[in-house]
Amino acid sequence: MTKLAAPIFNSRVKSDAVTAKEKWLGYLLGPAGALLLNAVLATYLNVYYTDVLNLTPLWNGLFLAVFPIVSKIIDAVTNIIMGQIIDRTKTKQGKARPWLLLSAFLLPVTGILLFTVPDAGDTVKVIWVMLSYNLFYSFAYTIFNMSHGLMVPLSTRDSTARGGLSVFNQITTIMMSGILVALIFPMLIMPAIGADKSKWILLMSMLSILALPLTLLEYYFTKERITEEVEKSGRTQEKISFREQMKLLFSDKYMLLIYGYFLVTTIGATIKNLGLVYYCNYVLGTYNDGVTQMLVSVIGGIPMGIGIFAVWPLAKKFGKRKVTMAGCALISTGSLICWLFPANMVIVLIGQFIKNMGGLPGSYVFMALFADCLDHLEWKTSDRMDGTAMSIYNIIAVAMVGIMTGVFNWLLARAGYLAPITAGSVSEAASVIAGHGWTAQVALESLKPAADGILTVAMRQPASVSWVISFAFVGLEVFTSVIAFFLLLFLTVEKNLPREQAEIKARHEKA
Length: 511
What we know:
- It contains 18 helices and 2 strands.
- By secondary structure, the protein is mainly alpha-helical.
- The chain has a two-stranded antiparallel ribbon with strand order 1-2.
- The two termini are 20 Å apart.
């Protein structure tokens, strides 16, 4: 308990109850830097690999299919290790917050390395991409994501206050992905940087550096009240082996259901996020037209803004589970509408609005529901296994990103995806296109060159590619949302939670 004991490391939150300053600085503003960086990477890192570095043809399309899956296996292992480390960390600042502090310095360095891939041979590029990807995702972001993810479950035993913190946390996520990345980037930033590598490096370096001061803000304005409660009780928690922890986690029906729900929704959401840019560029609109993705994101994002005020009152009145089930039904309905008419702008915008109305509960209250399951597990086993439980949660998230990225890239390659080309003039672009037998998406004479005179020319994609992209963005969630709905039917953890929390408190007082 002596580590990180110097006053400089102390939390600026002193109250036993959740404070407004804690909500706004620790849970809303603090995570913004790292979450913005991650949101940009989730949407555009694959675009950087396919359109800027042109890695799609490498190893006959296998590299971009295999390397994300291999990397996420590594990431899964590091998540398990990090979960064990957190559960065994004992400092004055808690067990998760000290790792949040370390991640603040790791994120900027590894984020920059992702994009500074040397202009060298394929072997050098492969090594750099593999190393930088794993340094960021398997090391730096794993440390951040594990510790950040535990801030809500460890913040307080008060379910209402904990739900409020979950909403504040998700507002930041929605703001980063639903406003900046989904609106500002396609409308202003992406048309300006095109496929220019130097501009990508400059932009991503700025975003990476921004993560440092904001993550420090999250560290200083959060507080692990549940960890402090356990420490003050004087109870010595027996060190349970990882194998025993896993047995306890996966023998509890509520943990199995919450993990199952998260798994299927993550599969659908990951494929959707990967397909967004390609869908707007090739199915609904034209390459980086600055309008299509903005419209899809604005109409889709309006419900997320409404949800700030609506979702938690509804969850308190009807229960988190029932509201989330209703959301699943809306997601499936909206996805089906879009899938039936994937190239019709008006119908797609209507479907997107319905989908995102349905996504409100899962976005804003999921972590509060997950925290309820952790409290139930503590009541059942008399032990807190936050780190291990969160490691499983993160393994699902990162593994599905890797697996689904690999699947998506493999499908693109097999369908015959044609990456954009860059050229110094219209005649040069026409020569390259004619030499390959391709067709430009729009007339070359209508393209506007970048400030340095470079033209970015997108190709008209084969029908097989258009189908893959449409299924990814609007088709798959028709099915994943139905599965999630039926899993939630059995997740009744809220029913007995007040009694279980009272019994936990009584145990601590007795100890």
